Amino acid sequence: MLATKNYKFWFCTGSQDLYGDECLANVAEHSKIIVAKLNESGVLPFEVVWKPTLITNELIRKTFNEANMDEECAGVITWMHTFSPAKSWILGLQEYRKPLLHLHTQFNEEIPYDTIDMDFMNENQSAHGDREYGHIVTRMGIERKVIVGHWADINVQERIASWMRTAIGVIESSHIRVMRIADNMRNVAVTEGDKVEAHLKFGWEIDAYPVNEINESVAAVSDADTNALVEEYYSKYDILLEGRDPEEFKKHVAVQAKIELGFERFLEEKNYHAIVTHFGDLGALQQLPGLAIQRLMEKGYGFGGEGDWKTAAMVRLMKIMTQGVKNAKGTSFMEDYTYNFVKGKEGILQAHMLEVCPTIADGPISIKCQPLSMGDREDPTRLVFTSKEGHGIACSLIDLGNRFRLIINDVNCVKNEKPMPKLPVATNFWVPEPNLYTGAEAWILAGGAHHTAFSYDLTAEQMGDWAAAMGIEAVYIDKDTTIRQFKNELMWNSVVYR
Ligand code: MN
Q1: In this structure, are strands 302-304 and 274-276 parallel, antiparallel, or unpaired?
Q2: What's the half-sphere exposure (Cβ side, CA atoms, 13 Å) at 289?
Q3: How remote is the CA of residue 322 from the centroid of ligand 1, in Å?
């Protein structure tokens, strides 16, 4: 489900023909070596492709347009080895539409003190040429990433790797299709939003289907297919009967297996990548999709509860951005539920009615069957687990009426202090940065939702860069946040983004 293209990034080195053929041959040789070493490093998640040195307006324009047209090209990395007069870049940059990285590096790590002369200086003047190039990109108001340092430095390579994932998020955002099988929960504000504006800004297609149309797909799933999936569940998860009759329990599990298969087939057939449900509008469905939605999220689908298409799209986006992360810890839809205000143990218990993605689970995963306190359907089965420890980010995309704002909070997940044997849902427990008091105060001042898209495998920088590429406001709540500064930031941003 997560499969994306075999993306590549183009490496374009800038220069000019003032320096003579020998110098240009060295420029090309150096950039080829950098590309080869970057690819050999094993640090980058995607391949870098060397392109011939850009020395004229015509070639720059042609190369950027080829990058636009190449379906596998997810971005261009630019570097000025020598001085490259920046007016030559105007037309190409004007027409370029994909993510742009300005790698401010140079071939040599150290100044060659014993041999350095003016020929060396003229051939190796990135410090000079990259400033000329940076100027025109700034003057043109083009959003780009600037990474500074020697190309062999692991920190530089890791920053390039991190940016590549943001670039994939930018490219893939325009393909996200969200299926709503119910409208927004009545009277709820924060899950609402302008779907036309979301299509314009992010490229998202958000469509509604009558719940009973997808129910027909569920009803069409054969008993054989359903039973095979139930067997898979029983082999994979612990079964917590808690006094229920084993056969009756299994029938409840089978309802979710049928929903998983029916929903997945419907989503595949219609090419959707995220799904939104609402416990109050289930048509002919026997249970609120719980286990079924959890499994779909695990497969890479985005999800939002109660009609929340913005969070559903964000969960899908963040799952794509983290695809192939080594030792990934998971990405899920989340909801702020209950606080612990005990001094020294403050934090937020995260959960949802049912739908938490098992990719974030730590340890065994169990199936439980319990009544739902809301809605009017039979007891739904759900996967229950606790989550991994460690750092993550919680993101909330809100619509302020005239614009979108992305709120990004660094959080630290810790184990629940004690088991909660009566709680029949998966949980995570996190402490927002800089602490619960300031973190939650800032979140509320920013208008953040109770629903979030959460990931252990992305950074605030990556999501903020994605927001910048989309042309929307991003605010960060992290270890450096103070309320006085944060309120000013919101006030100033309200002037900028109007
Ligand atoms: Mn909810």
Answers
A1: parallel
A2: 34
A3: 24
Residue 167 has pLDDT above 80, yes or no: yes
Distance (Å) from CA 186 to ligand 1 centroid: 13
If DSSP codes are grouped into helix, strand and coil, which group holds residue 67?
Answer: helix
**C-alpha–C-alpha distance, residues 299 and 288, integer Å:** 19
In this model, does residue 201 exceed pLDDT 80? yes
The predicted structure's pLDDT at residue 280:
87
Q: How far apart are CA 160 and CA 152, in angstroms?
A: 11
Model pLDDT for residues 342-356, shown as the tens digit of each residue: 999 999 999 999 999
Within this chain, do residues 129 and 208 fall inside the same structural domain, yes or no? no
Alpha-carbon gap, residue 124 to 118, rounded angstroms: 10
Question: Domain containing 458: what range?
Answer: 177-496
Report how far residue 52's alpha carbon sits from residue 46's, in angstroms, rounded to the nearest whole number.
Answer: 20
Compute, in angstroms, the gap from residue 352 CA to the centroid of ligand 1.
6
* Last-in-domain residue among 153, 173, 193: 173
459 and 408 in a single domain? The answer is yes
Count of structural domains within the chain: 2
Quote the ligand 1 centre to 102 CA distance (angstroms).
40
Tell how far the Cα of 245 is from the centroid of ligand 1, in angstroms: 30
Residue 410, amino acid: D
Confidence (pLDDT) at 254: 98
Residue 353 alpha carbon to ligand 1 centre in Å? 7
Ligand 1: distance of its center to the CA of 429 in Å?
A: 16
For position 3, what pLDDT does the model report?
67
Whether residue 159 is found in the same domain as residue 247: no
Task: Give me the amino acid identity at 119.
Answer: D
Bridge partner list, 246: none
Distance from the alpha carbon of residue 216 to the mean position of ligand 1, in angstroms? 26
Rounded Cα distance between 267 and 344, Å, is 45
Cα–Cα dist 281/192, whole Å: 17
pTM for this structure?
0.97
Rounded to the nearest whole angstrom, what is the distance from the C-alpha of residue 91 to the centroid of ligand 1? Answer: 47
The verdict on 108 and 212 lying in the same domain is no
Q: Alpha-carbon dihedral of residues 470, 471, 477, 481, nearest 10 degrees? A: 150
Query: Residue 289, preceding bond cis, omega within 30 degrees?
Result: no
The answer to whether position 1 is within a domain reads: no
Mean pLDDT of 196-225: 97
**Whole-angstrom distance, CA of residue 95 vs CA of residue 79:** 19
Is residue 45 predicted with pLDDT exceeding 70? yes
Residue 344 lies in a domain: yes
Residue 482 alpha carbon to ligand 1 centre in Å: 28
Instruction: Decide the pairing of beta strands 451-455 and 361-369.
Output: unpaired
